[in-house]
Amino acid sequence: MLFDLPDHQTLYAALLARDTRFDGQAFVCVSSTGVFCRLTCPARKPKAENCTFFATIGECIEAGYRACRRCHPLQAAALADPTIAALLRALDEQPGLRWSEGHVEQLGFDLSTVRRSFKRQFGMTFLEMARQRRLREGFETLATGGKVSTAQHEASFESASAFRAAFARLLGCAPADLRAGRLLRATWIPTPLGDMIAVSSRRHLHLLEFVDRKGLPAELARLQAGSKEGIGIGSLPPSEQAAAELADYFAARSDRFRTPLALAGSAFTQQVWDALREIPAGETRSYSEIARQVGRPSAVRAVARANGANQIALMIPCHRVIGADGSLTGYGGGLWRKQRLIEIERQLRTTKKETFA
Predict the structure, then answer these.
(1) How far, CA to CA in Å, does 15 sit from each of 33, 41, 74, 152, 190?
(2) What is the pLDDT of residues 21-59, one digit of tens each?
(3) Does pTM surpass 0.90?
(4) Is residue 104 assigned to a domain?
(5) Of the candidates 199, 234, 258, which is a domain's last residue?
(6) Total domain count for the chain?
(7) Residue 60: active-site member
(8) What's the CATH code of the domain at 220?
(9) pLDDT tens per residue across span 300-335
């Protein structure tokens, strides 16, 4: 679990010392390189602010990081399970293959056994690991100014149409629609609870959503329609600040977000969003409590609509709003993620109290 690890300072000291006591018990994800390593990795040590630590390999992969080729963090799991070893080797040897269940069966493996083994060791299936690796590599190619054809090749898609279709399912638009140099630009931010898409201008963050949110394509379409140039691809200062603040949040170092936000909504909707940001991390409020706070006690449904219209996840904490009976209610990022965010923030609050006790 995220908070079972020692604090960031202790783990960073262990990384610098290549402390073998933490080998296999903690892994470091390096934002500047996009890879994750053992703490005993012989590579040049990254800066502390570029490091996020996780207890499992699965968390590192889900956050969008690739395994280091110097310290081979996947090797221990591979050695412990011959099936995993063989499939990881096959994945490295055939990066251009669009893996399917048929390919796994052709190699002589039982599908249910493979699924259980990978879920146990990495928290995801083999096919999910292969798919995520391909799509993220394609997005990163586009973000650095590469052509769609190059991105398709880097993502190991057999055809441009297949790559465009996969990209469109994820973001609701074709890769060519996201061009470099535009006023609004999209970038990819890995987190322990899944990858996020951030869209910002040079001064403000306009959108921050988990990539699997069903409403993301519609939100991006609205931003595209509202911008004269549409949305480009690449990183701008607000997105970079958001990525750094999210890293601190998930590493239990801070629950404060200072990234400047562009809030597009009615006066009432923005009043609700302001009320959401006043809810302390680790606490929750009901829709009716928010309605009373904004001076509209009968507008519970309107509060719920304003809550659902939020397109800057976490920084405008709509996940802190629950039902009047204390139950979790709808959340665009998924109820499992809402529950985990509440748990993380309660633990963060406890950690802060212990620090200042």
Answers:
(1) 16, 8, 18, 36, 21
(2) 777 778 999 988 888 999 989 888 999 988 999 887 777
(3) no
(4) no
(5) 258
(6) 3
(7) no
(8) 3.30.160.70
(9) 989 989 988 899 999 999 999 988 777 777 777 777
